[in-house]
Write a structure and sequence with these properties.
It is a single chain. The chain is α+β, with helices and mostly antiparallel strands. The protein folds into 2 domains: 271 residues, Probable tRNA modification gtpase trme, domain 1 (Gyrase A, domain 2); 70 residues, Aminomethyltransferase beta-barrel domains (Elongation Factor Tu (Ef-tu), domain 3), CATH 2.40.30. The protein is built from 8 helices and 21 strands. The chain has a 6-stranded mixed sheet. A hairpin with a 2-residue loop joins strand 20 and strand 21.
Length: 361
Amino acid sequence: MTVIESVHEDHGATFDERGGRRVAVEYGRPDRAHRAVRKVVGLTEMHYGVVVVAGDDRVDYVDNAVSNRVPDEDGEGVYALLLDPQGGIGTDMYVYNADDRLLLFTPPGRATPLAEEWSEKIFIEDVEVNVATGEFAVFGVHGPKATEKIASVLNGAGSPDERLTFVRGSMGDEGVTVVRTDAPTGEEGYEVICAAGDAADVFDTLENHGLNAAPFGLRTWEALTLEAGTPLFETELEGNIPNVAGLRNALDFEKGCYVGQEVVSRVENRGRPSERVVGLRPERFPEDGAAVFAGDEAVGEVTRAAESPMLDEPIALALVRFDVPEEGLTVRVGGEEVPAERTDLPFVEGSDDSARLPAYE
């Protein structure tokens, strides 16, 4: 459940279920909120699952399980993957070193299975794994004025300069942690973490104090990340191997990717993947899962589509065969094939580049 449901209701939000959680989908003029993010700054509640890993062996334990090096310095973080036994992405996550514990932020619905799996595998390590989703609220602040927004309300610290680093301070009377994001919306971005009991006051501060921020919901988040070319776990990542998703720029190839405690072959040495994520600009709006064709041959399917408020036309990400031609693609819409131009990503250039922008050799 959202931490501040009554606040969302006061803003006229509509709701849906995602990953077992009730989330605010939109507030009634999503296109207006979308443009506010692109032009100034917007505010949204992030719906992470949260896992806390404590104990003297916490860094080594998590480092041995995930794709990227876990930082051993307080105030630093990393984007990482946990792979399944076939090398597919079981979940993605952000891992932050918060002094005497690691905080892991996962997609909704993934925190409990992850904590249960790791708890069962602890043998002699000094490690304790617990789900703490209900203890925290996380708010995303995104837009070309995001740094100015954070500076206008954060006390006791300056906004962090480096991606996935964080500082501690206060907003009003509430203690907060502020993380510089890896720009999933294609804009400057921060996440503000606070205790769940302080969530309503922190949201009010972020919305109304200093530089105002426009609230936006999950539908706008999905459209923003689509315009930015950012693959999301639920639509482009889950079950795929990392190089299919084009995550070369987001992964640490000096470390390699891990399945549980065992090293598997490094992603960069697997050769060219059989499929990849590409951007399409179809003439008409396709449904998720719509077939993509090259001539009469089906070569993939749409993973996510939206009517882009910035381009005023449909855009889509699709998972297609790696050798799909540059031209002549179509997408099935309403029982017929309509032209779909393949295009470079991102669809929209913002104030920052997403670290997850697909990249292939």
